[in-house]
Structures are given as structure tokens and as C-alpha cells.
């Protein structure tokens, strides 16, 4: 016995419309075939074909028209299908209600918008959120993880990372004025931009990471000490260029090895990091986070020496170490000559021709030695700590591309398995140190010829940045590792206190402004919206703005009525005393939705007509770069939904917004999906530079600037209207 196909009722008007669309697709497809036949001007398959540009353009245009027709037909069909699927669900309604629905007539026989279809109802229907911070728990992520819940709420992962360059001149490592928008291109800026990109692409959805990257430049001070002038005076005239290269590169190593200049470099790097740390803490009060150092080449030796000596300790060559004012969580050494220097300094335990280790570990919680196999400057560390590690290979970094479609938990599983498999020596204690960068592209074919370039590959390596970011997110990694060790399914990760950005938010003022990225130090254009407790950020105003089709203002004679013939229909007349005021017929997704809209509209009309809500406080948008014909007047909405309005015999979808004084219709709802928010609890304003700095309770901050004085003042006055916040004025530009 064959399977009987299920039958569905399809409105005749829909069949007519679909047939018309089919004929349109056929006609445009035929025009595309005709146009493409004009391309074949010769039968000689061995020759190129000479084609008129106008002919090729006609082919493209006809193909685009054909595609448009197909897309239009698919959209129409899917709407019909969605309506039919939902109508089957609606059969559960009382029989009397279903009967009244079928008596609506042909005009009302059009597809209904129903509450079950996510594709429609989740565009334009927003849950009315309360601004209070609803959380299931106030416990920290680590405390939550003790009972292995299915979801963990994460606080901000705050991190400060110093980046120290190697040999040679690095002007791009010189910190620019805080307010300067232009950034010099170089290893520092490219590296920081790569961090920002990788953070956003791999971590942003699950991990609320606030990473501030601060470069440290030490080369200039040494070379301005007068030593370079002496070097130039002893160079023969015929070799100035080559010896100039020696001065800029090789001499850095010799300078550092000499007590006088070595002391100068150690003092410069130590003082810079301490000063920058103290300044960072000053502008980020109550900051709680970890600190890392990422160093390259000779910078790794400088960092290693600082971190392997106590404050006040004197090194073997007489250099005094004054110590850092903060603990260091991670030390990342890329292209590091530290092992060869430890060997040459005689710091290893070598007896009777055999080395038994002896290399000191730096005083950090986690030490990473990153090297490229062809880098002539870089060496392994582990065999100098434990000689038994010499036969065992370093951990090869996982390709960052393999993480693109993984959750953070899945990334942790990959790295955990990678490092676990590499723990081969039984007497090796603790996490691995040596990590090898993969060969890529031409590197595979050029072998040792790639050596001169391999020493700088770390600045552009996505694999290096990925493992660094994973280490920076260690507080979360450690939590997930407990799940892995106990063989428990990984939890869902979610940033805590994530407050939705919806049309129900009362936005006071909105501006397109410049927001500083702490990872890159660069300023980026963003649309900024000021609400009662928070400031919301979106990439642009276009991500929020919508085109308004019309607005029906409330009057003393406005009336909203139910349609007795259809339990989903609402009839609204803006002014029943005015013969020219047409009645707007709207169809809801369900009877429940109609009840919600009827109650909300009646309440809004009652308040308006009684004088309780005589005005609507629209968003101040001076300085907001809105696309032409759009607005953001839908904020502070009373209710929003995608409804259907009747035009002739057909029903069409539109997004409706009920305000205190009107019913507004937009062509579509705002797709507010890419946004961030920051608390208004602590605000620091700088009138001289137009800066606003927001600092949350864990010390995480964001800075944006409004350079137009009148607009800056408008923001200040708007912030003053809100309660429970601290507004401090400052003059320094940090």
C-alpha cells in the first residue's frame, strides 16, 4: 500500500500569484539563454572568442534578472509554506474560533503570520527586558564549576600584556600620544591588529576578553647615549653601509652584554613597564586581572633576566635588577636566544663533559618558548632544564584555521590532547615550555634558505597569536580542563550581565564617534547609544536604523477595535472624527498576540487621552551618521511586533512599533545582533580632548571621544540626568 501524500489547503490567490512568478522566471530564463547564445561567434574551439562588452553586459543583466525572479518566487513560496505549517498548529484552537476564521472571506484567506515560526516571529518581536541584572548566581566562574553545571557565566577576563622587541630599531614600538588616531605601521601595530582580529573571530562570542597591549621600546635610549657617534668615527669610509647594519643590529647584542649598557637597557625596560602598569591602574581603578610579557629575540633575554632575578639582586656581570611592581602570569618568548646565552654564561650544570641541566626558570606561572624550526637565533629550553627532554620533540602548534568553527571548549580539548600526548618524559614536571611553529607556504620548499625570514615570522603567525590568547584565557581553560579530566560534557559559556539591546531601551542620545581598541591602541568609528544604566556600542548606525513607512499619531478621537469576523485582526483609526482618516487593518500572529496588542494600544491611548503621556522623548541624534531615509525613533517602545497589514486583497508583513503617542510602521525590524554595552557606574569625562572613559566594577574600561564641544556637553548633561553613577572630570589625556 502506497504512502498517501498529505493534502493542504492553499488560497486560490496564492496559486495565481505563484503561477505568475513561474512564468516570470521562465521568461527571464529564456532571455538569459538568448543573450548567452550571442557569445558564441565562432565554431573554432582552438581560438579565443571575441565578445562585445555590451553583449557580455546583457548576459550578466539577464542572469541577475533571472536570479531576482527565482529569489522572489522562493520567498513567496516559503511564506506560503510557513503559513500553512502554522495553520495546522492553529487547529488546536476552539472550534468556534476556527469557524469564525473560515468565514472571513477571500480577502482574509491570505497567509497568516503565526507565532510558531521562528523565521518570522523572531524578527521584530523582542522580550520586554527589565534593566536589572538578572543572574542565576553571583558566584565566580570557578565557584560555579565546582558542581559541573551545564552553563557557566563568565566575568570579564582582564589582561594586560607588554610587548618587547628584539634587536634593531623599532620606532613603531614607541608609544604614541593616547589621543593620536594615526598609527605607524610595523611589527608592533601589525601584531596588535592580528591579536584584535583573532580575538574577535575565535573568542568574542563566548569569552568576554578585555586585552590591553602595551609596547615597550628600549633601542633608542642606548643608541642616543653617544655610543653610535663613537662607532661611526671608527668605521672605515669604504664600509659605512655594512657597518651601519652592524651598528643597528649586531651592536645591540654587544651593548647588552656590556655592564654599562646592559644596566641602561634593564633599567629602561623595567622602568617603562612599572610606569605603564601604574598608569594603567590609575585610569582603570579596581582593575583585577593578569599580566603577561610577549618578547622577541633579544627582548626575550632582557625579559628572562628581569624575571629570573629578585628585586635588588646583582647579576653575574654587575647589573642591578630593581624588579617589577607586579607579578607576571605568562612569559612568551619568540625566537629566543636565551638557551644559548645561558650556555655561554656558564649558568648550566656541566660536569665531566656532561650537562645535567641547571637552567633557572623565570619567576612566572607559565613560560612559553616559541620557535620556528629554521630560525637560527631560536633554541629549545626544556633540555636545559631537564636533559632527558632532549630526545622528545617540542609541541607543534595547532593551525589556527582548524579552530574557526569550534567552540572555545572544543579548542581547549584540542590543545589539552596536544600537550598531553607530548608529555613523554616521565620525570618532566608541569606544563610544556617548547612550542614549535609550523612551516607554511614557501617555507616547506626553501628549507634553510628561509632562515633569515623565519626569525620574524612570529609577528604575523596566527598560530602564535592563538596559543597566546588561549594562555591569556587560562582562568576559563582551567575550568574546562576540570570537565575534561572528569569526562563530563563541556558547559555552555556565556558572558554574565549581558543586557539585551532592544527597542524597549530608553535611549537618551546617540552619536557616531571614535572608540579606542585597547589591543591595537587604534580608534574606530562606532555608533554609541546612551541609555539609563549603560552605553551601547554598534559598528555603525546602519546596524540599528530602519526606514519608517508611516506614523499614525494618536489624537483625542483615536480608537482601536477588535474585528468580530477574525480573532487575529485589529482595526485602528487615528481620528474617527476625520473622514479622511483611514482605518488601519492589522493581522496578528495569534489570538494571544492580538490580546497583547489590544491591551497595550488601549493603555497607550488611555494615557495619551488623559494627558499622562503627552509627549514621546525621541532620541537626540545630532552627530549620528544615519543612512538616508532611516531613523532610530523606535527606541523607548511600548510594544513591537512583525504584523501584517492589508492592502487590497493581500496581506503584507511590516514591523510595527507602539509608542506613547503613535503607532509607527517600518519596512523591517532592526537587526541588532552585533553590539556591546558598558556600565555607566563610573564615568570619567575629559572636556579638553572630548573623552569619555567608562570603568566597570572589575576595572575594565572603554574610552570614546566626542570632539564637537556642543555634542560633548549634550552627553554630559544627559548623563547627569541619570541616577546612581559617578561622573568625574579630568584634564590629563592618559
Automatic annotation (TrEMBL):
Domain PH, first and last residues per copy: 505-606
Region (Disordered) location: 90-117
Residue ranges, compositional bias (Polar residues): 98-113
InterPro entries reported for this sequence: DDHD_dom, PA-PLA1, PH-like_dom_sf, PH_domain
One MF annotation (Gene Ontology) recorded for this entry: metal ion binding
Residues covered by the DDHD domain: 324-474
Protein name: Aste57867_10830 protein
